[in-house]
């Protein structure tokens, strides 16, 4: 990975690396195949990435363990879980099961491991599915066992992460399949502090990450163009900036009209530019019958003719993405993947028989 995600002393390194004598053990749960992840400790967080079905995207400063601690701290406040302390004896142990209450793509399993281990390293977690797998309503796909107090304290934070990530992954999978042969991207329209978590879920769902932040790609947008005095001036300024500092990175420019596309191409034909991608913004026109007109987008793609990567943006939905993907664009970006996510309904239940009975009564299992 080109950057780093801080997992300093991260519990995932304990959970996902099996001890030499234990390796990965298998047992049965709900007639499925279960991977039991060892609680053996390791001082090498990098090894934990190798165990993950889908590794998180890289970021030079993001502290994933710090985000987990913050999530647990906002739940615990200054007193801790007063209900658990009042009702659960310290020595009671339980087994709780993850239950899918909707069909979808599961994501956040590796992150759930980290949360459980941050709360209590003695907890044991088993899974019959991995990040990116399909789960159906009513499926028990994992279990956690150990001290009851620890399981219940971790429960909501684990589910908050998993439900959000699974919702993102589920929509991403649907849009990525429909967009083919174009690739689906998210944007920076993520929940504050959850940038890496949201973008990780996109990868799990089969999408591709756009830039992580302001630091890893030059992206010349409409406001930059307005301030610079036009699209040519903006690109020229970027070329000069990168050359003076001996920097090499991807450069994308936003275009909103065919005239701007032609202006970019004209500049590029006369200059050794650092430009790598042209965004074609709002060139998908919605129609009154609910369909979209992609003729402007197709014309722009034709003008560019493979000289640069292309990215369609604007009016991208699950209903329109297939038609957009057939225009020849390289990428399709959708802010809705992360800014309008619908969480996938997942629960963690100790009494699964009663949970399923209630689920059937409410048509949720």
Query: Alpha-carbon distance between the termini?
Result: 40 Å
Tell me roughly what share of residues is in helical segments. 40-55%
Number of H- or I-type helical stretches = 14
Largest sheet: 6 strands, antiparallel
Question: Notable features of this structure?
Answer:
single chain; 365 residues; alpha/beta; six-stranded parallel beta sheet; 14 helices; 40% helix
Describe the fold and architecture.
- The chain has 365 residues and is of the alpha/beta class.
- It contains 14 helices and 16 strands.
- The protein has helices spanning 12-15, 45-51, 64-76, 82-87, 109-119, 148-179, 195-204, 222-228, 231-244, 258-270, 295-304, 321-325, 336-339, 352-361; strands at 25-29, 32-36, 93-100, 104-105, 124-127, 134-135, 140-147, 183-185, 218-220, 251-255, 277-281, 285-286, 292-293, 309-313, 331-333, 346-349.
- The strands form four sheets. Strands 1-2-5-7-3-16 form a six-stranded antiparallel beta sheet, with helices on one face. It has a six-stranded parallel beta sheet with strand order 8-15-14-11-10-9.
- Helix 5 (109-119) packs antiparallel against helix 6, helix 6 packs across helix 7 and helix 10 runs parallel beside helix 11 (295-304).
- The longest helix is centred in the middle third of the chain and has 32 residues, at 148-179.
- The chain is elongated, with a radius of gyration of 24 Å.
- Residues 8-47 have low confidence and may be disordered.
Summed up, what is this model?
This protein is an alpha/beta fold.
């Amino acid at each position: 990975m080109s950057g780093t995600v801080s997992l300093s002393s991260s519990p995932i390194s304990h959970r996902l690396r099996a001890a030499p004598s234990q390796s990965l053990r298998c047992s049965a749960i709900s007639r499925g195949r279960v991977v039991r992840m060892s609680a053996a400790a390791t001082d090498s967080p990098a090894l934990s990435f190798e165990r993950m079905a889908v590794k998180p995207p890289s970021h030079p400063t993001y502290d994933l363990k710090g985000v987990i601690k913050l999530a647990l701290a906002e739940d615990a406040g200054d007193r801790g879980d007063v209900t658990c302390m009042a009702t659960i004896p310290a020595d009671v142990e339980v087994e709780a099961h993850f239950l899918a209450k909707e069909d979808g793509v599961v994501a956040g399993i590796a992150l759930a491991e980290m949360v459980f281990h941050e709360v209590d390293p003695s907890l044991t977690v088993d899974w019959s599915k991995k990040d990116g797998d399909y789960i159906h309503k009513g499926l028990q796909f994992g279990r956690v066992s150990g001290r009851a107090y620890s399981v219940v304290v971790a429960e909501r934070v684990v589910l908050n992460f998993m439900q959000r990530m699974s919702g993102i992954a589920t929509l991403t999978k649907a849009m990525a399949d429909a967009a083919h042969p174009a690739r689906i991207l998210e944007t920076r329209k993520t929940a504050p502090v959850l940038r890496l978590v949201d973008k990780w879920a996109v990868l799990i769902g089969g999408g591709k990450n756009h830039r992580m932040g302001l630091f890893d790609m030059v992206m010349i947008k409409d406001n930059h163009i307005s301030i610079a005095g036009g699209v040519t001036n903006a690109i020229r300024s970027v070329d000069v900036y990168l050359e003076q500092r001996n920097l090499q990175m991807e450069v994308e420019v936003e275009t909103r009209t065919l005239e701007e596309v032609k202006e970019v191409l004209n500049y590029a034909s006369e200059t050794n530019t650092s430009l790598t991608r042209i965004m074609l913004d709002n060139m998908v026109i919605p129609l009154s019958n609910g369909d979209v007109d992609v003729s402007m987008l197709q014309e722009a793609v034709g003008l560019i003719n493979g000289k640069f990567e292309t990215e369609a943006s604007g009016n991208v939905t699950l209903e329109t993405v297939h038609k957009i993907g057939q225009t020849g664009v390289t990428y399709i970006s959708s802010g809705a993947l992360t800014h309008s996510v619908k969480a996938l309904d997942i629960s963690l239940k100790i009494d699964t028989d009663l949970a399923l009975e209630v689920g059937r009564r409410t048509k949720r299992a």
